[in-house]
């Protein structure tokens, strides 16, 4: 018998998540302050100063932008997930698909860090997340192509620039 959570959708809207935005936002600010101090003391983001910021920001962003998912991996089977044409065909035939962040995570985290360092309130941070955080499903080959072309820079349309065509949703 399948559990109620097997589809990845929240069945019980009353159930509270362990880490909610009102808990994660202060923690994000704390990790940003720690990252800033580490960088000031000579430790680099590539050395790990930014890793906790990236992790909590991703968790927060998933909750804000994909509240219907109980876990990010459930996006892989979600019928309304943004997906490439090739990944749609792969998923239909039972092949693996991969979750890709449209904005590279490190660059996205640095934008949020800059926003908070300039004094942004929580509402502004959440609005930025809602406008900018996006996940898509791609094939392994598409992820490789995307990362070869642009793994770290935010551009107007990183997905299209890599020659990846996204499937239009049935409501488009």
Tell me what the structure shows.
This protein has 172 residues and is mainly alpha-helical. 50% of the residues lie in helices and 5% in strands. It has one domain (21-161). The protein has helices spanning 21-40, 45-49, 51-65, 85-92, 105-117, 122-132, 140-149, 158-161, and strands spanning 98-101, 135-138. The chain has a two-stranded antiparallel sheet with strand order 1-2. Helix 1 runs antiparallel to helix 3. Mean pLDDT is 89; it is low at 1-14.
Percent helix among the residues?
40-55%
Q: Tell me the fraction of residues in β-strands, as a range.
A: under 5%
Class inferred from helices and paired strands: mainly alpha
Helical run tally: 8
Could you give the order of strands across the largest sheet? Answer: 1-2
Give, in order, the helices and strands: HHHHEHHEHH
The shape, in one word, is globular
Q: Uncertain spans, ≥5 residues at pLDDT below 50?
A: 1-14
Q: State the end-to-end CA separation.
A: 35 Å
Sketch the major β-sheet: 2 strands, antiparallel
User: Over the alpha carbons, how many angstroms does the gyration radius reach?
Assistant: 17 Å
* Number of discrete domains: 1
Mean pLDDT: 89
Number of DSSP strand runs: 2
């Amino acid at each position: 018998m399948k559990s109620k959570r097997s589809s990845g959708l929240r069945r019980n809207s009353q159930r509270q998540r362990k880490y909610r935005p009102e808990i994660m936002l202060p923690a994000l600010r704390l990790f940003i302050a720690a990252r800033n101090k580490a960088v000031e003391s000579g430790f680099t983001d590539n050395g790990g100063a930014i890793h906790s910021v990236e992790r909590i920001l991703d968790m927060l962003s998933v909750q804000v932008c994909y509240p219907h998912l109980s876990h990010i991996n459930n996006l892989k089977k979600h019928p309304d997930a943004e997906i490439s044409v090739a990944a749609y065909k792969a998923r239909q035939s039972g092949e693996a698909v991969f979750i890709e962040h449209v904005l590279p995570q490190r660059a996205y985290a640095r934008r949020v860090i800059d926003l908070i360092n300039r004094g942004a309130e929580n509402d502004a941070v959440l609005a930025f997340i809602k406008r900018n955080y996006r996940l898509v499903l791609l094939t392994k080959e598409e992820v490789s192509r995307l990362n070869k072309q642009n793994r770290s820079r935010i551009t107007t349309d990183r997905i299209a620039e890599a020659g990846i065509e996204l499937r239009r949703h049935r409501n488009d």
